[in-house]
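Researcher: Structure prediction, please.
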Amino acid sequence: MHVLVAPQAPRETGGPQLRLRRYAVVGLQLAAVTAAYYGSAKLGLEQQLVRGQVTPFWPPTGIALVALLLWGMRMWPAIAAGAFLVNVTLGPSLLPVIAIAASNTIAPVCACLLLRRVNFRPALDRLQDALALVFLGALVGMLISATIGTGVLVASNALAADDFWPTWSVWWTGDAVGILIIAPLLLAARTIRRPDGVNVLRWVEAAALVAGTTAASLFVTRSSLNLLFLVVPFLIWAAFRFQLPGAAPCALIASVVAITAGAADAGPFSGQDLLAKMVILQAFNGTVALTSLLLSATVAERNQTVRALREACERLSEALSQLVPDRTMDHRPTFRLEKHEDRK
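Model: Predicted structure follows.
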C-alpha cells in the first residue's frame, strides 16, 4: 500500500535575519537622507535673502528627489524629518513649521510621481529624461513648496502681504535650483567608476575645464557688464567631452558662484531689487541646467545609437559569413585566365 504524501514547501533559511538586514538597510537609508537633508539645508541657508530661511539655493530638494527616485516613496518620512528639524529652529511657530515641512515633503514627492508618470530614467541618457527633470521635476514640482511655504509665512504674519511675490520667487528659485543642479550631480555620481588606463591628456583636459569654468564664472558674476553668457561655452565643452559626469560639476560651480554674487549684490545683480535678482538668477541657472543636461543627454543618445549600429553591423557580418560559403581567392584568377585562353 502506497501512501501519497504532499511535498512540503522548503523552509526559508535565514528568513528573520534577512528581514532584519533589510530593515537595517532601510533604517540607514532613512538616517542618511535625514542627515543629508539637514546638512545641505544649513549650507543653503548661508545664502538666505528673506527672513533668515528663504534662500535662492536649496540643495535638499535635489537630495530628496534623488532619494525618492532611487530608494522609493518610503523615504518620505526622512524628508519630512529633515525639513522639520531645519525649520523648527527658524520659526515662526510650531504650526507654520509643520505646514512648511509638509510642503517641503509634498513637493519632491509630487515631482517624483510626475517623473515616474513619463517613465523617467535616472541615467539621464535620453533627451526626454533631461527635459522631464527640468520642466516637471524642477519648474512645475517646486511650485507646491514655494506657494504653500510663502502663503504660510503670510498667513502667520511672519511676512507682509506685499512681500509675497518677491519671497515666492526666491523660494521657487531655490527649490528649482536644488533640483536642476544637485539632482543631476548625484545621479551622475552613480555612474562614475574608477578610471583605468585613462590618458594623461584626458586628466589635463578635465582640470583645464574645471579651472576655466570657475574663472569664467567668477569673472562674469563680478563684472559690471552683462557677460553671463560667457560661461555657456565651458558647459558645452563639458557636455560634449565628458557628458553628464563632467557637465554636472561645471553647472554646480557656475550656479553656486552666481548665487553667491546675487546674495552679495555684486556684478549684474548690483542695484537690482529682490524680484529682479531672482529673475536674472533663475534665467542664468535655467540656461546652465538646460545646456548641461540637454547636451549631455543628446551626446549620450548619439553614443548609444552609434554603439547599437556597430553591434548590428557586427551581427549582420557574422550572419552573412555563415550564409555565404567560403571561397578561396585562388579559384578566381584561374577562372579568368581560362576564359581568356579560350577567347584566343
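Model: Confidence is low (pLDDT under 50) at residues 1-6, 328-344.
Researcher: Thanks, that helps.
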